Amino acid sequence: MASETRRSEILQRLPVPYATALRLRDAGTADEIIAERVGIELDALPTFMKVAEAKLAAAVAQMT
Q: What confidence tens digit (pLDDT) does each residue in 32-46 have?
C-alpha cells in the first residue's frame, strides 16, 4: 500500500496528460482509449508513454 501511495504522490508531480496516461495504463485501459483521453493519435502513443515513463523516473529520482 505504501508504494501505491508513493506512486500516486509522484504522479501528481507530472503534467496531467502524462499522469493520466500512466494511471490509465496501470488500470489496464486499452491503448485506443488512453490515446483518445490524452488527445493524441494512437500511432503516437508508444512514444508518448516512453516520455511519460521518463518523466516518472525523473520525478522518482528527485524524491530520493
A: 999 999 999 999 999
